[in-house]
Amino acid sequence: MHASATDTDPVPPPATVQPRERLVGEDLYLEVVLNGSATERLVHFTRRGEALCATATDLRGLGLVLPPGDDERCLPDIPGLHYTYDVNRQRVSVDAPLDQLNLPRQILNKAERSATPPTSGTGVLLNYDVYAAQGGGLGNVSALTELRAFSEGLGVLSSTELTRRYQTPGQGWQGDTVRLDTQWRLAFPAQSLALTVGDTFTGYLSWTRATRIGGIGFGTDFALQPYRITTPLPQFFGQATAPSSVELYVDGIRQYNGRVPAGPFQLTAVPGVDQSGQAQVVLTDALGRSSTVTFPFYSARQLLRAGLDDWSVELGTVREAYGITSFRYGDAPIGSGTWRHGLSDSLTLESHAEAGDGRGIAGVGAVWNPAGASVLNASIAGSRGGGLQYGLGYAWTGRYVNASLDTVRSDASYRDVASNYGSPPPRASDRALIGFNVRESSFGANFVRLRYAGQSASRYAGLYVLRNLGRGISVNLSYNQNLDQSSDRSVFLGVTVSLDQRTTWSVSAQRDRDQTFVTADASRPVDGDGGFGWHVQGRSGSDGGGLAELGWLGNRGQLTVGASNVGPSSYSYADANGAIVLMGGHAFAARRIDDAFALVSTEGTPDIPVLLENRRTGVTDSSGLLLVSRLNAYQDNRLAIDPLDLPADDRVQRVESIVAPSDRSGVVVRFPVKRVRAASAILVDGNGTPLPVGALVDTGDGSPAYVGYDGMVYLDNLHGSTALRVTLPDGHRCETSLTYPASARNLPQIGPLTCRTMP
């Protein structure tokens, strides 16, 4: 073991380093590079001849694994360690085997990231959807509305209502109004919790049923943290002997590219929902040497990450005759509780209990990923009175093959709370499915069996084939058969041609029981950014006919008109939907708002283009306002304005903002635009010669300006009349005055102004 060095005087320790007790030898405070990575630490070494020595505590702080004790250790005495001492740079480069290092694990490609804190303004919103139809001498009109109020820290209060007016033969117009849902919801995004008071549902699992209630509910809502990963993700653990570049490929698509220092690292792959496949990690060191590791992965949304809980509790009374009456609720209170827990990344436990109105059930279940792309699930539940329900299931989601098989069975005594208000749970529910994905084709088969108490079982089987022929042409063939009634079958064959991203033509033939009909269809849906769309269809057979429909979508709503003639029925119809928003002291008409929105303000400046995620969405009105309706709650939404059309004398403090509105609420986003009284002035001396470049101009506001070429100087914050005092490069001084025109815009040019020499 040899170390290279050149004699030099000892370097004193920096002021930020605590001096150590001097030992026999030369004291050095050196920067340390470990396995090619800078540690950004200064370590106290003692030079003894050609050897560098340090305390065991300092060496452990660098990551070296040493026997117990705090005695001095010399680098040449550590097996497998090599070092080089650079005197000029006062640096020591240490190379050590990874098995002699205890370095922190580097986390790469973190799936989760911090979200922008959610905010909310205060306002009221009315969503509406009005539909009218006329045919056969009779008409009908219906309106579905949602009234919503929101405010920061107070949550969201909403109510939906359906109003109907219709004509009947001999009785004229009739109608009614039904309240659908009314609720107040308060979210706690930091904890992923939400409180709901009013009309809601009880929690449920795959082996239980939800019940519509009026009451109170409280529990987790992971949608409040959209960047939080709740399902287990495939991870790769490795180590680099030297600083290296790391690449991650998922099914051949590069998902991550970065650098990692020497030592252990952890790399997380983020596949799609219920996706299986192959991932490759490529590690390349500084010398260009590459190593590749391939590992399979599977991601299942039924599983929770280890240690994660998902739960809810509800208390209330059952909502009855929903959509028929407005305020009909059961008399007996019911309670419900649901809990899921990620015991490990491969095992999630489930439980559910509910009771009320003389009924009650309690049960447990589990979802397990034993290996590969397979998922097993099992559940068992008992009801008050001795009823029993159990369920088993298996699913395989591979790259080329998907298969699932599950069953839920119950005995005659099993009853849940919903049984008192409707049909009991099915005695047997069986399902089997298998599908194949081969190149441009998908095909498979399915089977369903359902049996209720006192009824015979219903069994259906089906086959399907989907083939992509290229150039936007696809063929779809399906066959469905009722296994208990041979005449109950349907066959469908369709060809679809996509002319471009929006225009589609299709022709299909279908035989359903004893009827056969052919349908020709062409459509161009309305683009999400707005504009026109259309749909036409023709159909043969006993119920033959056709329809034609035209739609338009703008920032203030959507309108659809059409006419249909199917069999003996002919009618025309129209539909209008949108929203009316009261916020910030103004009223706005907008397209329907189901999620969040933003009110963009340019502080009174009109006609400024506004962009959402780099796409133009509209311009500000005469008050400098624009309502942007397509934001996602709790997610980062990038809003910006385009300042290119601003007059030259307008200033804007910022042109971009990232906002995260709260649940179904609006947020005010301000881009202050301020008019600056600015001008370009031409300054000349008494002979009409432009003042020299670099002359200093003082307007008295403390912000000097400098003369450029041709005696031109840019001045802002001007008043009606402004005195200008100029200091020339040779030290001489002169003065003049500038009068700013009251009606000037777009950076006027003023002058020439003669600068008179000051005594």
Automatic annotation (TrEMBL):
Residues 685-741 form the PapC-like C-terminal domain. GO terms for molecular function: fimbrial usher porin activity. Pfam families: PapC_C, Usher. GO terms for cellular component: cell outer membrane. GO terms for biological process: pilus assembly. InterPro entries: Fimb_usher (IPR000015), FimD_plug_dom (IPR042186), PapC-like_C (IPR025949), PapC-like_C_sf (IPR043142). PANTHER family: OUTER MEMBRANE USHER PROTEIN (PTHR30451), SLR0019 PROTEIN (PTHR30451:SF5). This is PapC-like C-terminal domain-containing protein. It comes from Luteibacter rhizovicinus DSM 16549. The lineage of its organism: Bacteria, Pseudomonadati, Pseudomonadota, Gammaproteobacteria, Lysobacterales.
